[in-house]
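Purpose: get a first structural picture of the assembly so the mutagenesis plan has something to point at.
Setup: two entries, given in the order below. No constraints added.
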Amino acid sequence: MSTARTRTLKTLASTSSARPYVAGHLYATCTRDDSGKCILSRKEFKTPIHISKPYWNGSNLLLNLMCPTAGMLAGDSVDLEIEIEEDACLTLSNPSSMRIHKMDPESEATWTQTFHVAKGGFLESNPEWLILQGESAFTQKTGIRVEKGGELFFIEAIAPGRIAHQESFLFRRFSNRLSLRYDNELSLLEKHRVQPENGTHSSWSNELGDACPFYISVLLASEKLSDSSDFWKSIYELQSDGARIGASKLAKGPCWSLKILGSDPIAARRALNAVREQFYREIDRRPADLRR
Amino acid sequence: MNLTWLPHMLQTTDPLFPIGSYAHSYGLEELCASGEVHDQDSLLTYLKSIVYINLQEFELPYLRFTYEAAQEADTTKICELDEEIGASKPSKELRQASSAQGQQRLRLISKLRPTPLFEQLLELKKAKRVTPHHLTVFAAENVELQTPLGPTLASWSYQALAAPCAASLKLIRIGQEGAQTVLTSAIQDIETIINASLSIEREFAGAFLPTLDIASQRHEQAFSRLFIS
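Result (structure tokens, whole complex):
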């Protein structure tokens, strides 16, 4: 268990303004009850995380996560632990963008999250954009474990600044580490520290051609998907002037990585929505209405 | 001057050493097909914006970690690192290019110069505890040949920069002289890239290359192609 659980409101002594920072969390377990309905059998949360009342659509439990603060500020941290029990089905959505705000050079905000999907369970994590604003530093660590027979649709959507305000790649540092284990085998390990100041963003900013700064990564896991499926051909054909898209099987298990780079957030989301619709059709599940 | 390692290193990094690298473009073919890499200047931009970053943030740090593990004959750590190398590639083609060349290099080097470490790697491969990936075998090989770490990193860097230049001859109108001009410019940065790579720690060792990932992922579905990756 992360130390965040025991942390309360603290003061960031290193900043001259001694701004208070918050260490929040969400610990939730989704269970299918005797009547066949999915419920939250455990929910504990603390600012800056708030959650909506869960909504059951007959096949999928929707839980909206909200950050009532305008985003993450220097020193803020969040710890998420989401457990999907056997045959349970949860869609986790974050209906508004999460902004990482400008902060002092020595400061950063951190987000640590773990997800566990048991056999027969299903998790969709579908947040809105993570926006790395100018002079921000953010570390995100994600650990996902899917047991054999579990299913996953996991999205990361990242914008390198407030592009509409001509703020692009002005964040200080973005450290990201994600591991996906399927049936206890390492399927994907993505790690990187992007610092525009030292040029490590150059593939993202695409010095070779048109700028497509809106990045979406989707991880898909399901035994109902196969490498030979027409699904992948249809994904390939989703590429348009505003969105590049590719997909490939990962190292272990029935797991795939799908990546989108969009010239604008609408083009990127449009491609994502098409992928989502086709994925649900392919695995024969009913998607939750995200109510955004 | 002790240069006994040098002829061995030259042999194992020569294009004559048959590990099949000529059959791979490592994602470049798709970027040429999309028109983004189309001449000498854009090839150099490709090297600087993608290959340099991949070397500095991912390949050279992992080569260093594996070299150090091989020096200590720590096979558990070698297996862990090899697993991480494979899982770090979100494209099947890039992963298969890495494993095919690693396995071919191991098969060949263990026949030419059998050593206990190569024997162990073959046993681990048989037991499915290691793939092994190209970086893993290259690290072990250079430890066995007593190549110092610096030249090991430099020779890997040279190959990583030369391979796309060689592939470009078949993909764009560039010519031998054009490809050599690009390579000459790129290899001047090898020392800087190696020095920057030395501070990368394992926790975040990895490169963020969405343009390359998508290009390589799309290459799998491409209607026609010259290269395996």
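The helical segments of chain A are 230-236, 265-283.
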